[in-house]
Amino acid sequence: MKPSRYNFFIDMNGGGKLAFNAASAYLAEVYEDKFPIIHKLLTDSSPPETDEEQELYQALVEGQYLIDENLDELATLKARNRINRFDHKSLLLTIAPTLGCNFKCDYCFESQRPEKFSDETMAALLKFTEKNLRRSEDMAVTWFGGEPTLCLSIIEKVSGEFRNIAAKRGANFQPATIVSNGYILDGKMAERLKSAGIHGGQLTLDGPERVHDQRRKLHNGKGTFQKIIQNLAESSGILKWVIRVNVDRDNHESAFEVIEVLDKEKILGNVYVYFAQVNSSEGVCGDMLGRCLSTEEFSVDQVKLYKKLIENGFYQIEYPSLAPGGIAAPTLTTAMLSLRMENYTSAGRN
């Protein structure tokens, strides 16, 4: 075995390190007293000698920090990338039926436009789908925006057409997802979305009510938190939700309170939660620059938040993993290794 070329070790405040493998997306917290053992196992070709070394060795192999000495990682990743780039087995569509939105979030980078799908646009989409599904075995759709729930009838109509096209082509129409702000997505709408083939998606809460309502409000300035919580209570037993918490300097100290609210309202057991870094992009979000945490600052906060979740018995956490194209993305099946060595398995943007 040999150490992966994609191992990264980051010093943590108060001692210890974070170990991240960029090829496998495994993340591990290494306690300070364990790092000499980890270092030995990664640099010394001799086999582990003690029970503790054997346990840590197996964890390093599982996380692909240690790999077969004959494996060419770079060649493997290049081959995987090319296979995925030219693989037409699945047709994946992200569809924004409108760029209009009922929110005016203070960090939003989109310029809102109220236009919705025209008949011509819908016809072009269906034509594109039928053409490209000829060489695919299945298709999956994510509804995006703007706020897609403003176009529920369009979603229902297009989803029905997708089912017909998939059946005609002998393809499997996978359960769809939706990225929504959740303000009008109550139980009745959740049932309609489920009937349209949507099994879940992403909603956003940026802190407890006092924080969220300063950041994610209606165009008239009114808050949205309580309505979203009410809708989550109605819909979380119908659709599978991932709750995104956007984190910057203004709310990073209160982000964990979202978990406490969801737990109090008996919603937490039905959803997954993840924390997302707010970034400023030149030309569109330049006014956010002073509020954004650096990647290092956010990473430290993220580790603290996830540790606090685990310490409080919450394991439905979304960690980053590698998407087929090799880009970090959230997934429900990513593992986090804590080099105590307990394994935690778990499950963005609006």
Question: Please, could you describe this protein's structure?
Answer:
With 350 residues, the protein is of the alpha/beta class. The chain folds into 2 domains: 1-87 and 319-350, no CATH class; 90-317, TIM Barrel. The chain has helices spanning 35-43, 51-62, 73-85, 119-132, 152-169, 187-195, 209-215, 225-235, 257-264, 295-311; strands at residues 2-3, 7-11, 17-21, 26-30, 66-67, 90-95, 138-143, 172-173, 176-179, 198-204, 240-247, 271-277, 319-322, 328-331, 335-338, 342-345. The strands form 4 sheets. Strands 6, 7, 8, 9, 10, 11 and 12 form a 7-stranded parallel β-sheet that branches. Strands 2-3-4-15-16 form a 5-stranded mixed β-sheet, with no helix packed on it. Strand 2 (7-11) and strand 3 (17-21) form a beta hairpin. The protein is globular and about 65 Å long. Mean pLDDT is 83; it is low at 282-286 and 325-350.
Task: Label the overall shape.
Answer: globular
* Beta-strand share of residues: 15-25%
Described by strand count, sense and barrel closure, the largest sheet is: 7 strands, parallel
Per CATH, which architecture of the largest domain? Answer: Alpha-Beta Barrel
Could you state the order of secondary-structure elements as H and E? Answer: EEEEHHEHEHEHEEHEHHEHEHEEEE
Write down the Rg.
Answer: 22 Å
Stretches with pLDDT under 50, minimum 5 residues:
282-286, 325-350
Number of strands: 16
Structural class: alpha/beta
Number of helices: 10
Through-space gap between termini: 43 Å
How many separate domains? 2
The pLDDT mean sits at: 83
Question: The CATH topology of the largest domain is what?
Answer: TIM Barrel
CATH class wording of the largest domain = Alpha Beta
| CATH superfamily caption of the largest domain | Aldolase class I
Helix content: 25-40%
